[in-house]
Task: structure prediction
Amino acid sequence: MPKETKKTSTKKATKPKAAAKKKQPSKANLATQLKDAGILLPESADVKEMEHRLKHWKAGKGYLVRVHRNAGSRYVGHPLALLDSPRKALYWLPPSDMTDRIIATQRVVIVGRSEKPSSNTVFIDVPLDYE
Result:
């Protein structure tokens, strides 16, 4: 009987592949998601700003509000403290959890609702560090 010969592979040992990097969504993809959700596109068109709006804003119209009573020391860490312009100022707040918290204080008067802020309103956006 002939001796069996060992066959050796000519292939090189393969290295394990590194984990694929997580791709950042494109501006066009984020813009489409915002448009489909009914959320206003930011003027800056920054990817970080778009992701922030997608995370925190809700679909629908924003709120036009005026401050009825000042915030006082009771609301120091509250989003109501963002409304610091003169008392008669008209603010536009986006539909979000932050806006719901501000309205729940009953220290603002809802004047109306609109899709976009007008030129004579103070635009208050959800802060980037808001959770």
Observations:
- The mean pLDDT is 80.
- The chain is about 20% helix and 15% strand.
- The beta strands are 62-67, 90-93, 108-114, 122-123.
